[in-house]
Amino acid sequence: PETLSGGEYQKVSLARSLITGNRLLLLDEPLSALDSSIKAGMKMLLKKINREGITIIHVTHDYEEAISLASKIGILENGKLIDFGEPENIFRNPKSKFLASFVGLKNFLHGRLVSTEQNEIKYFFTINDFCISCLTDLEDGECFFSIQPDEVSLSLKKDESSNRNNFQGIIVDITKAKLGYEIIVDVGLHFVSLISKSALDSLKLKIGNQVWISFKASACKIYR
Q1: pLDDT confidence bin for 120, thresholds 50/70/90
Q2: Stretch 96-122: mean pLDDT, rounded?
Q3: What is the second-level CATH architecture of the domain 6-70?
Q4: pLDDT in tens, 3-20
Q5: Cβ(148)–Cβ(219) under 8 Å?
Q6: Which of 78, 126, 163, 189 has the largest CB neighbor count within 10 A?
Q7: How far apart, in whole angstroms, are the C-alpha atoms of residue 95 and residue 18?
Q8: Phi and psi at residue 141, in whole multiples of 5°?
Q9: What is the model's pLDDT at position 121?
Q10: DSSP letters along 172-222, please?
Q11: What is the pLDDT of residue 136?
């Protein structure tokens, strides 16, 4: 065994489990110690085993691994099952701060939806009566809010466009991301805006700068 690579060792372990005729496999982080090329091969093998009728319970902390392999996903938080269902539905509509963080959702809030008389606009209320304009067909009541960081515009002056949501705040953090920079702005709540390197340089943004963020009501995602 000491001469086997990580991938070879995992394959031997799978073979030992299957040779006895088991129809259920319980795998605890089976891909965590493998490099990317070996991991891809192991994923293909696990899918093949599953297609042949073997049920696999696969424990992982890797969101991308879970969504690429699972037909059903259960989310555990502090030992409790907080959600269960199809991967796309669970990860597109996270219903807890823990799950939103797990899937990398940056702007996620839990609050109440309250209708107004402004055409189709409804207000979404969160802590401290912070109010966000949004478009939705949902009825009033508790709900979840999210918006993608690249939908949150950032400027040094108030946006005079048609964006219904404009908030002034202070930059509290600047982080390098895969596709630019994530700017965290405190406007009473923390919002993340994703901007390019050229925008960061041209605006001369630094932690502590006062800025404006803005986003469209139609960009807000409201769900239950």
Answers
A1: low
A2: 81
A3: 3-Layer(aba) Sandwich (3.40)
A4: 777 777 777 888 888 888
A5: yes
A6: 163
A7: 37
A8: 135, -175
A9: 67
A10: EEEEEETTEEEEEEESSSEEEEEE-HHHHHHHT--TT-EEEEEE-GGG-EE
A11: 86
Q: For the chain, give every domain's residue range.
A: 6-70, 107-223
Contact yes or no for 38/9 (Cβ under 8 A): no
Q: Evaluate if pTM is beyond 0.85.
A: no
Residue 52 banded pLDDT, cuts 50, 70, 90: very high
Q: What's the CATH number of domain 107-223, 3.30.450.20, 1.10.10.10, 2.40.50.100, 3.10.310.10? A: 2.40.50.100
Q: Which of 184, 177, 180 is closest to 206 using CA atoms?
A: 184
The tokens 């502090």 sit on which residue? 78
If phi > 0 it is left, if psi is from -120 to 50 it is alpha, else beta; for residue 180 that is left
